[in-house]
Amino acid sequence: MGMPAQNIRWTAEMVRALPDDGNRYELLDGELLVSPAPSYLHQRALRLLYELIAPYVHGNALGEVLWSPADIELRPETILQPDLFVVPEPLAGHVKQWSDIDALLLVVEVLSPSTAFSDRNRKRPEYQKKQIPEYWIVDLDARLVERWRPSDSRPEILSQQLTWQPTSDLPALSIDLPEYFARVFGAKNGH
């Protein structure tokens, strides 16, 4: 879906003034990106991932796990809405508004047909430039996770095990991906 006035340069204020109409609005270098509300399967995948990540993050005092909608303004004229993200300590708990967030520990996007190109080719370089330690792209169709780090020119493709160790002094979080995807698609105890 496109906006009619493609030749204007959008600002953060203009995007924040848009109506709450179910669409997701993001801003990348002054260009407005619009995507429809995510599907049920997309949201289910996020909930299940949150249930795996949040206990690890909170139990190790790494920060706070949050989800969109959230206007993360990594730089002027760029507002992104990551599906799931971790605000690191000591920033977590002290945020009063989205613009207070200037760093993230982890960003996760679950691909949708309407967002796949932007998630891989537009947003990923932004997260890498901002030195986000890990950016995960969850591909439900392929049942895999692409892991990107700031200096990567290609993703690490994970289909069996996703291991996340934000600091070397902590034990790693390990996610069994076949089991995760089975739960997403309702094959195992998916509540």
Description:
There is one protein chain. This protein is of the alpha+beta class. The protein has one domain: Alpha-Beta Complex (tt1808, chain A). Helices cover about 25% and strands about 30% of the residues. The chain is built from 4 helices and 12 strands. β11 (about 160-165) and β12 (about 175) form a beta hairpin. The radius of gyration is 16 Å and the shape is globular.
Essential attributes:
six-stranded mixed β-sheet; four-stranded antiparallel β-sheet; globular; 28% strand; alpha+beta; tt1808, chain A; 191 residues; disordered N terminus; 25% helix
Q: If you compute it from the alpha carbons, what radius of gyration comes out, rounded to the nearest whole angstrom?
A: 16 Å
Number of domains: 1
Binned strand content: 25-35%
Largest sheet: 6 strands, mixed
The CATH homologous superfamily: tt1808, chain A
What is the strand and helix layout of this fold?
Blueprint lengths: L11 H5 L7 E5 L2 E5 L4 H20 L3 E5 L4 E4 L2 E3 L3 E5 L17 E5 L5 H14 L4 E6 L4 E5 L7 E3 L2 E4 L8 E4 H8 L7
Parallel strand pairs: 7-8
Antiparallel strand pairs: 1-2, 1-5, 3-6, 4-5, 6-7, 8-9, 9-10, 11-12
Helix pairs in contact: 2-4
The gist of it:
The chain has 191 residues and is an alpha+beta fold.
